[in-house]
Amino acid sequence: MVFKKLFSSEKAVSPVIGVMLMIVVTVILAAAVSSFASSTQTQDAAPQATLKASASYNDGYITLEDLGGDILTKANMNIEIAYGNPTTSGYVNMTNVTFSPESDYLRPGDSATIPFTQYESEYITGAGFYDGDIHLTVAIGTPFKVSVIDKETGQTVYTSAVTLNP
């Protein structure tokens, strides 16, 4: 009779099962969060720089002035020129780009010059970019896009619409 009375009281069973279910759910959630967190990769940040771009047909080059920010290295950057509708773009051959005063990197106060061919025909006078990966012509007075892209991250450091001045 004592045994019957011992097992007939089920008041404590429900709270014990509830606590065990809470622990199981917590363990499963912790495993899921841990699995997700270990599978995500951190992406390196591109250098941050403030630049100013200008282009002059008479000078024969585009000038990029570094106004501040991180140091940009010539070996880790691409310069893209984009123009037209539909847009045509390409990367400038970096061996032709001149950094001043240092030849390998661009610091605040430094500048870079991107040469182009002065193109003249009966229909258009403008800048011709015909080097390596790029083949396009930009007319005087027409805006085009200049972008500086970090090679390591693939992220754009700077982009601006520039008008080719006479």
Trace the largest sheet across and list its strands: 5-4-12-13-1-2-8-6
Number of domains: 2
Structural class: alpha+beta
Please tally the helical runs, counting DSSP H or I stretches of 4 or more residues. 2
- What's the architecture of the largest domain in CATH terms? Sandwich
Our measurement of the CA-to-CA distance between the termini, rounded to an integer number of angstroms, reads 109 Å
Kindly estimate the percentage of residues that lie in beta strands according to DSSP: over 45%
Query: What is the string of SSEs from the N terminus onward?
Result: HHEEEEEEEEEEEEE
Backbone CA Rg: 31 Å
CATH class of the largest domain: Mainly Beta
Instruction: Tally the beta strands.
Output: 13
Uncertain residue segments:
none
Main sheet overview: 8 strands, mixed
Helix percent reads 10-25%
Mean pLDDT: 86
CATH topology of the largest domain: Immunoglobulin-like
Describe this structure in words.
This protein folds into two domains: 2-39; 49-165, Immunoglobulin-like (Sandwich). It is an alpha+beta fold and 166 residues long. Strand 12 (143-150) and strand 13 form a beta hairpin. The chain has helices at 2-8, 13-39; strands at 49-56, 61-69, 72-73, 77-83, 88-91, 98-100, 105-106, 111-115, 117-120, 125-131, 134-139, 143-150, 156-165. The N and C termini lie far apart (109 Å).
Task: From the structure above, extract its key features.
alpha+beta, 3-stranded antiparallel β-sheet, 2 domains, 166 residues, Immunoglobulin-like, 8-stranded mixed β-sheet, 13 strands
